Amino acid sequence: MKPLIFRLFFISLLLSFGIARCQTYDGYTLYFPQNGTKAYLVDLSGNTYHQWTFNSNSATCYATYLLSGGVLLRTVNHAGNYFNGGPISGEVQKVDWNGNVLWDFIYSTQDYCTHHDICGMPNGNVLLIAYERKTAAQAVQAGCALSIEMWPDKIVEIQPSGTNGGTVVWEWHAWNHLVQDHDATKDNYGVVANHPELLNINYNTSKDWMHMNGIDYNPVLDQITFSSHALNEIYVIDHSTTIAQAASHTGGNSGKGGDLLYRWGNPAAYQTAGTTYFNVVHDAHWVPEDDPRFPNALSGYNNKGGAGNKTCVDIINPPYNGYNYYLTPGSAYQPSIYTWRHTYSGNQSQDNGNSQQLPNGNTLVCIGMSGFIYEIDSNQVQVWSKSVGGTLPQSYRYPPCYVNSTYTATASGLPETICSGGTVQLDVTASGGDVYIYNWTSNPAGFTSNIKNPVVTPTVTTTYTVTIKNGPCSATDAVTITVNQLPPAPTITQTGDSLISSASSGNQWFLNNNAIPGATGQILVPSSNGSYQVQVTDINNCTSPLSETFNVTWMGTEQMTNMEAFSVFPNPTTGIITITASSFNTRYFETAIFNSIGRQLMNKQNSRIIDLSEFENGIYYLTIKSLNNKLVTRKIVLIK
Q1: pLDDT given for residue 636 in this prediction
Q2: Are residues 361 and 444 in the same domain?
Q3: Residues of the chain whose pLDDT is less than 50?
Q4: What is the extent of the structural domain holding 512?
Q5: What pTM does this model have?
Q6: How many domains in the chain?
Q7: Which of 267, 113, 130, 282 is nearest to 200 (CA)?
Q8: How far apart are the C-alpha atoms of 82 and 87, rounded to whole Å?
């Protein structure tokens, strides 16, 4: 997550052109000799792709990162610092692709001075590590067992302004979070082992007591991690606090103010049993949350912590508990051992150095004191290396799309117009680099996916937005899928011997669930008994649900002629109707009542009086079948 680019996270995708390229993460490697006036980007063949040359009085101190737009964020050896030792900086610059200084900020007085690492933040601000001077009297009052001047560390967040201005908008001081069991009459007295959230001022006490040397920011948790050379630990603190809360023990997302949320590497520093793993640690940073192997883990560069004091890279999985970290009182912070370790086979790097977890699961390692950079795959097999010589504090790999600022995404959907309930194949085409992350969202909300070409079934017109990421590269595009609603299911009514659809066009009639060839008009004259339905297709080619079933039962009987009349009265009726007939045998006949969609509601034998009062107001159909199977139908209007 360091700097801004490292908050963009990754998943693994092997390249497909050549064995060597398949194993190596494509891109350009940034390196910069300590105390030098040049920085380099080299390709995978080791050739210089780009070079920056700095003013002779602006030598690189310890840290340099490539920001978007080809801008370097770098620490500078400022002339005239009160503080001494290494690596003291006191100055920070932003330098463009052509070597022009865009911002030159000095943070150095007799009371404080930046040193070692920096971290660019998503909001454009910069986190600085700085010494602050405390007198011997102040140290003794804080509970220090020695009467010495001390340089405890602080962290400041600088908001750049203009070409050389900057405002401190947030700060954290280690001096506000101390504990000591040396002198009950002095500040910060307590049982060290009972306060793992505090720093024991008497552990390995010296002027440069902590010697912070690495810093990183996690924008999701809004937390900061940093490493301490002298205390052999990495730490996590809450950045969501106000400045006042950061100086206290309450507040922020964690509820713990500026106290330590997590620490790992040396339980003896808080008088707790456990194995000490770090022996000079640098480069505390989070592993990206979408890393294919160790998402959200913490990493430290363990200069002399491996077998035989070898240099190694350690990765640990912290015991996350929301914005806090699980801890059993009286025990060391978990895990009890590193999650993953890579040990360098050559000579140790007593100082400096870093690692970077790459999007394809590889790891880039910088052996600082030897000037050697190499890349290993997930099986810890070396797949790339470059020997520079001299001292290299850090090195980082950046993909071509980030360096060249050419990365595009084009979203598509097939088809782009559907009927409600239809499916669409979404897809995205990227240019400028290999795509490792896909993130689809929708408006209206409700859909997310992290695959390249998901299938969706929108019920309303929806815009699908995809963001693709390749390391620090990111591009976004959207496609709108138009959804036409289905027409409503039609209804069927009967007039005489005909069935009529409520839709004037687009009809298709069905008999017993089978489409009737050529039956596409609004009116259908049934040719046989059975269950009839109709379906409508509108101008958008969207098809309605089938209508309810209309049962035809009278086919095969002889219809009465108009001369064979009968009467039904009163019609309209309030409920009771009477049947009279003159031309068929009224002694033996059958009557039936149907609703408007052809469902039979009543059947009677030889009944001249029919009671409809139990039915709802509406249109009904009365059929009378004679002994010789003659059939006649009348429409009845019921109004109660």
Answers
A1: 87
A2: no
A3: 3-21, 557-563, 584
A4: 492-552
A5: 0.75
A6: 4
A7: 267
A8: 13
